[in-house]
Design brief:
alpha/beta, two-stranded antiparallel ribbon, 18 helices, 9 strands, 51% helix
């Protein structure tokens, strides 16, 4: 049975993270691991790769031409990436991918469906063909392409693509964003956890604040299934009896977990506005007898006691180092001896590893105005500092979407 701590403050407040207080990556990640002799070799290679005469020679040489052509295409894709993203956004907003998924359509049919001029729409469709979002079928009809099929099949992907329009507002001037500002951008305003609300204004803006929480929670719920699938494919809940999901949002993960492991008691901990949404979702799903939502802030309030597994899913990377350490310490104190922490979120790769979504997540979190992308090694160091032991990086099928860390409380409270 989950019990509330003896003292829980009545109110919580969202945390404000200013750009100037962002944390740095660990020294090991910043410095890399190349040795001096490799640096010297890299300097020679740099001179060769920027040589116009070498470029002309490599293009004229049949044995090296394919290398130069491939690199030229990669550079072009970097330059054209924003255009590609806008082609994708237009296809999503016009529901073209969902429409051709029902059956292939002609240009004229799609023009009527989208209410766009044929000439303009044709350019969008040709671009979508080039990006493999669409595929040309018989009689000039358009069907789903290899890359369009996942977008058409998953509402979470489409929700994130729509959401990126907000991100691109902040990235119109990336240099200005890197310099930092005290004025919140569009992304940080979208995310209610990072906006400071003065106590005197909270009552007056209650409806607007509730709308922010609902909007963001809906987005997270739509994109959560990808992470949940990775966890279910990689971690067994058989040994657990009670789960506390910290920062659990609307309860999407616990709703899925209720069906996946029917023996579990489920508890959620999040800010009051979010916990209200989760409680309503538990009622709608008919799991209110097994799932409860507890209001509070892990930065200020003690966590409810009694769970033998605490999950922290896509939470740590949204917060600065000090707040993550506070959360991990609170989780450690709430767990019984032998209890387990499962942390799942996108993670940065070490310097000698192939990056997954590092470039994207670094800027996404920068625009949010809080947190950063951390390596598994950095997160494990924080978990160790909080007192956890027997740490494990759990292999999962799609590390691009998330990676999973597990730690256990093997002793009494860590002092």
């Amino acid at each position: 049975m989950l019990t509330a701590p003896a003292q829980v403050p009545a109110t919580t407040k969202a945390c404000l993270i200013e750009m100037k207080t962002l944390d740095l990556a660990s020294p090991a990640q910043r410095l890399g691991r190349k040795t001096p002799w490799r640096d010297s070799l890299a300097a020679v290679w740099d001179r060769m790769m920027t040589s116009t005469s070498l470029y002309r020679w490599s293009v004229s040489n049949p044995l090296t031409r394919w290398i130069t052509q491939r690199r030229a295409r990669q550079v072009f894709d970097l330059m054209a990436g924003f255009v590609y993203s806008q082609v994708l956004l237009a296809c999503v907003r016009l529901r073209i991918l969902e429409t051709v998924a029902e059956r292939p359509r002609t240009l004229e049919e799609l023009a009527q469906f989208t209410n766009l001029p044929v000439a303009g729409l044709q350019r969008l469709l040709q671009s979508a063909l080039a990006l493999r979002l669409l595929d040309l079928r018989s009689e000039g009809r358009y069907g789903l392409g290899a890359l369009g099929a996942p977008v058409a099949g998953h509402v979470g992907i489409r929700a994130m693509i729509e959401h990126h329009a907000v991100l691109y507002q902040d990235m119109q001037d990336p240099v200005a964003m890197l310099k930092g500002t005290d004025q919140p951008g569009a992304m940080s305003q979208y995310w209610p956890y990072t906006i400071e609300e003065q106590n005197a204004q909270r009552a007056a803006t209650n409806a607007a604040q509730a709308e922010k929480f609902t909007r963001y929670s809906n987005l997270m719920s739509a994109s959560q299934p990808f992470v949940v699938d990775e966890i279910f494919a990689s971690y067994s809940f058989d040994e657990h009896r009670c789960v506390l999901d910290v920062g659990g949002g609307q309860g999407t993960f616990l709703g899925r977990l209720a069906q996946h492991a029917k023996h579990l008691q489920l508890h959620l901990f999040d800010l009051p506005e979010v916990a209200t949404l989760a409680r309503a979702n538990f009622e709608r799903q008919g799991i209110a007898d097994r799932a409860t939502a507890n209001p509070g802030s892990f930065l200020e309030d003690a966590l409810p006691l009694g769970a033998d597994l605490v999950t922290l899913i896509r939470v740590a990377h949204d917060h600065p180092d000090a707040d993550v350490k506070t959360a991990l310490r609170a989780i450690y104190e709430a767990l019984p001896v032998g209890g387990t922490l499962l942390l799942a979120e996108p993670m940065a790769q070490e310097p000698d590893e192939t990056p997954h979504g590092d470039a994207y997540f670094h800027f996404y979190l920068l625009a949010m105005g809080a947190g950063r992308l951390r390596t598994a090694r950095e997160l494990m160091a924080m978990m160790t500092e909080a007192g956890f032991s027997n740490l494990e990086l759990v292999p999962n099928p799609m590390p691009l979407q998330t990676q999973i860390l597990v730690g256990r409380k093997s002793q009494g409270l860590h002092l």
